[in-house]
Specification:
The chain is an alpha+beta fold. It contains five helices and five strands, in the order H-H-E-E-E-H-E-E-H-H. The N and C termini lie far apart (99 Å).
Length: 171
């Protein structure tokens, strides 16, 4: 093995053992190890060290390069912290906007609902007053239950009952 940097194989071997990176020696690649200090380990095949230029030759070994990765680890960690802070800030802003929108639309909707309810009640009262004055028998029936909801005096007179006796009965 060829090691490049201030770490020695005595330092790297326990790191490989603790972090289960012996597979890295077989497959190659780069991994970061967090020990007492972060280390970047890169393994790549050693090919054609005799310069025969024969592409059929299998790798004759592996080159292991390791170096201190404290600066990269600290930069990564700082980036993660910044991303978390930006996400929290963005979610807070979004929540504020949504809450403001909800407050801004809730009251007008409640006002419109109350106004429409009053209009419907007024319309019902007018319809009831007109139905009472007509010289015709008028019933209001619930189409789902066939129960009488309203009956004017002329209808009750034709049935030989009072309007209150008709209301709630079956049609």
């Amino acid at each position: 093995f060829i090691g490049i940097d201030a770490l020695t194989w005595d330092v790297l071997q326990p790191l490989l053992d603790q972090n289960g990176l012996h597979g890295l020696l077989r497959t190659g690649g780069t991994r970061f190890i967090r020990g007492d200090r972060p280390v970047q380990v890169t393994v790549f095949p050693l090919k054609d060290y005799l310069n025969r230029k024969d592409p059929r030759l299998a790798p004759s070994g592996r080159v292991v390069v390791w170096k201190d990765a404290t600066a990269r680890y600290d930069a990564f960690r700082q980036g993660v912290i910044h991303n978390i802070l930006y996400t929290v800030a963005a979610l807070t802003i979004l929540e504020t906007i949504l809450f403001g929108t909800w407050i801004g639309t809730r009251q007008p909707l409640e006002d419109r609902l109350a106004m429409r309810t009053r209009q419907l009640k007024d319309s019902y009262e007018k319809m009831k007053a007109i139905a009472e004055e007509l010289p015709l028998g008028i019933l209001m029936v619930d189409p789902l239950s066939d129960r009488i909801l309203e009956a004017n005096a002329h209808c009750a007179k034709m049935a030989g009952q009072t309007p209150d006796q008709l209301i709630g009965g079956s049609y």
